[in-house]
Amino acid sequence: MNKLLAITVLIAFLALGAESFRVPRQAEEEEKGTIATVVDSLKSYYDQSVDTASSYVESIKGYKLEEKAKTLYDETVRAVSTYAGIFNDQVYHILYPQDSS
């Protein structure tokens, strides 16, 4: 559950920040200024967060959650159908009682 929350937060962060992250290209100098150093560190943090999110997504795919959700849905539908049939039968016998004479 914690991984899923972390992935959701990372994807939201990346989706919101992807468009605003574009920085105009400047001529590279031999000495990097403060802004270039900050931009480089931000790019490395961004790349690291994308790699981490990708690894989390791959680990979630390994849990086969789609198959488990489908199985749970099928079992729930089967149980609800059974109880609905029982309820329907009970209501029918309340409305139309059979005489045993």
UniProtKB/TrEMBL annotation:
**Molecular function in Gene Ontology:** phospholipase activator activity; phospholipase binding
Keyword Secreted assigned to the entry: answer is yes
Q: Which Pfam families match?
A: Apo-CII
Location within or outside the cell: Secreted
Question: Which domain of life, per UniProt?
Answer: Eukaryota
Alphabetical list of Gene3D superfamilies matching this protein: Apolipoprotein C-II
| UniProtKB keywords | Chylomicron, HDL, LDL, Lipid degradation, Lipid metabolism, Lipid transport, Secreted, Signal, Transport, VLDL
Task: Give the protein's recorded name.
Answer: Apolipoprotein C-II
Provide the species name. Phoxinus phoxinus (Eurasian minnow)
